[in-house]
Amino acid sequence: xNNPFLPQxxxxxxxxxxxxxxxxxxxxRLAGQCFSFVESTYKYEFCPFHNVxxxxxxxxxxxxxxxxxxxxxWEMENNTFVxxxxxxxxxxxxxxRQTKVHLVCGKSNxxxxxxxxxxxxxxxxxxxxxxxxxxxxxxxxxLPEALQRRWDEAEQLLYDELITDQGYKKILxxxxxEAGLLKATEEKEAEKQNKKISLEFETVEKCSxxxxxxxxxxxxxxxxxxxxxxxx
Length: 232
Prior knowledge:
Elements (H helix, E strand, L loop, with lengths): L34 E5 L2 E6 L3 E6 L8 E13 L2 E8 L3 E2 L2 E2 L1 E8 L4 E9 L2 E8 L16 H15 L5 H14 L7 H13 L5 H24 L5
Parallel strand pairs: 8-10
Antiparallel strand pairs: 1-2, 2-3, 3-4, 4-5, 5-8, 6-7, 9-10
C-alpha cells in the first residue's frame, strides 16, 4: 500500500489501528487479502478488516494517495449484516473520510463498484461467494450464548409490551457493542473495563478469598514500615 520511493513521512499513516475481527467467522478468511478496482485515473484498494485506500494513477508530482477509512464496525438491519464501515480515514476539511462497503453475492471475490455519494463518504460494492447462502449474514448465530440469551429476553419483553421499540433497539445496540460488532463510545469502553474489574468479586467466596490475601499483604507491609520506623 505504501510507495517505497516516497520519503517515510509522505507514506500512508493511519490514525488508529483497525478494530478486531468480528462478524461471520467464514468471512475471516478474507483478512490479509486486498482487492483493487481501477476507475478513470484512480485505483481503489479494499483490504477486508483492515482499510480502504485510494491511489491516483498519474505522474503528477502531487498525485494523491490516501486512506479512505479504517475497519471499525458493522452496519446491521433485521438480524442481518448489511455492510462494513471503514472510518477515521484521511482528513477531509472538518471531518475524516469514511467508506461503507456493501457485501453482495458474486461468483468470485472482487471489488465491483465504487462511488462517492456525498463529499468524502465513499460507497464500495464487494462481491463474494461467501455471502451467497441465505443464512450467511445472520447476526444472531455469531453471538456468544450469553448475548443470545439477552437478545431472546429482549424479544420477549418487546412481545409482552414491557419495553418500547426504542428500548428494544437500545438493548440490541448494547449487545452488539459488547460483541464487538459496533464500536462503543469511549465512555462505554471505560464502563466495560470497570465492569470487568467488578466481576472479579461476583461471589462471596471469591470476595472473601481476595480479602484474606489483601489483608495478609497489608499486614506484611505494615510490619516492614514499623521495622523501619516509618509512620503509616
